[in-house]
Amino acid sequence: DAMTACARQVAAPGTEITGVSPRMGPASIESHYDEALAVPGLLQEIEQGEREGVDAYVIACFGDPGLSAARELAR
Length: 75
Prior knowledge:
Blueprint: H1 2-10, H2 32-52, H3 67-73
């Protein structure tokens, strides 16, 4: 919720911001193993966003886990 609020403060007027968190994966990323476990949930959220016509995504996590796969998946 805090990240969504921050994004709304800096977004252009009329920009719709929707904050989501994957339903699966670790509560926090503390290791390479945790990072690997976080990616499938991230990709599921992007798949859903693609079906809904989302224009852009922000991975609000240090290290951008799953960024390369997300770029392949998103239009």
